[in-house]
């Protein structure tokens, strides 16, 4: 993994130069991309803890070896590395304070960087993460004119209308253990009374700086650390640290608040102090490198074993679809039928958004694979016009499930709901048999769960699920008047709903769902890279990626589109070719030819076409706007602060 380290000039303790004017410590606890820059110093937070875990095998040894080779450890000299479980990135901050010195010192994270000069988009960092000469010049200019560099000021909970924005105190109360914060306030009152006014001002405001990221003059940093760690050491003696894995990070959470209080108080007492708020960019990680030959996929075992359905057991499955998505629904049904080895019957409930008679007949013809029951429910008689559609690949069919209790037979006790953009690779009876007694549903965590929880203003102690694959307990849903709850939630919260019915379902069912293994909803970002915050681990991703029970082609990576880069898109075509919607030979040959010679890159900020890996067309939208044709940069616009510069064919205008 040596190639991940680009800033090879600084990788061991003895390599640190005491004469450098500014250093930004990139704090990590796992292998990561390291910008090639004289300013960036990678540091491993919690190395003492990692070394201890390596003794019992509870940490990946390959990852630890990479960290030892490519980063500074925070476990040498005067250190608190062993406290990392509770202090998080502060153990790296403490090590720098006690063991290093330069004119300006800063801290960023392995997944967040200061976007000095507003030069890059997320996609650019993913492709080629570096700080060029322009960045160095801009940073030099900033530190010449400012005392402290901080991330942007955010609303505490930026979820739309002002009524949804919380105070810092209320937000901490909702997400963490408020008695810890109350104890911290008591310490300020006793030992640092001159900070109390600033503390109250901050805690009851609705603005904050997140992330524990900053760049400071050394003397300010030195005073800050003396103040910070004195408070935290005293607090450590007063509170009981929770056994909850998340809440154990208490001192990291509190330091995020203390940084705001310290800076606010510093400005009050020193009006000459100058603060620069710099954009922060999320670094998109490299996708996990799955070896396709080792991914366990369905073997169509139903055809091999010739199971006879001689049981009265039924699995009830809902699909919501319209005429356009009928072929994709057929591929999904075929995969279910062909990979279920269990002796069960299937009942498919198709919420029909105007499927043609011809396509209904084709869906019925899937009985040639395995017999089943199928019922079509006319959904066009219901009005969904009040619900928003803000994804171009979403139709009103996504909302049909909100009224399912009015549509389905009243005797059903549970049902599986599946989106059409899925392929089932394992026996779905295992999913059906999941014990969801007392829960509204069996669900799988979303690929951006933490991000969505915050956006939706939901408790972080719960989790956010992907609504494309659900095992629904209809008896429990009837008890809460499910449809009315969904419609009421939408009306009250429509200003924050961006993911359609998924947001509604998470809002209504939050806190009473059973989370099932990630393999039952193996999302596209597992294979393509994920910069979104989520709770599931890399090990969970590896397990699901190599053993996907249900492949879910989430987001824009739909396998029937030419632009799809999903490594398992051919699984969709394998099953679609077993349906009446199969492509003819010529059409399939042409599609495969395009797949082999063309690669498309479509993101919110980049649109590109590569032919034989040659960039024929590339348009970038964001902080840097540019257009390349055949590798020649036709247009470029950069923005540094308020200053814009435009280049045409390399000529500055």
Main features:
653 residues, alpha/beta, Spore Coat Polysaccharide Biosynthesis Protein SpsA, Chain A, 3 domains, 7-stranded mixed sheet, 24 helices, globular, disordered N terminus
What does this structure look like?
- The protein is α/β, with parallel strands linked by helices and 653 residues long.
- The chain folds into three domains: 281 residues, no CATH class; 292 residues, Spore Coat Polysaccharide Biosynthesis Protein SpsA, Chain A; 50 residues.
- 35% of the residues lie in helices and 20% in strands.
- It contains 24 helices and 27 strands.
- Strands 3-2-1-4-9-6-10 form a seven-stranded mixed beta sheet. The protein has a seven-stranded mixed beta sheet with strand order 14-13-12-15-18-17-19, sandwiched between helices. It has a seven-stranded antiparallel beta sheet with strand order 21-22-23-24-25-26-27.
- A hairpin with a 2-residue loop joins β25 and β26.
- The radius of gyration is 27 Å and the shape is globular.
- The N terminus is likely disordered.
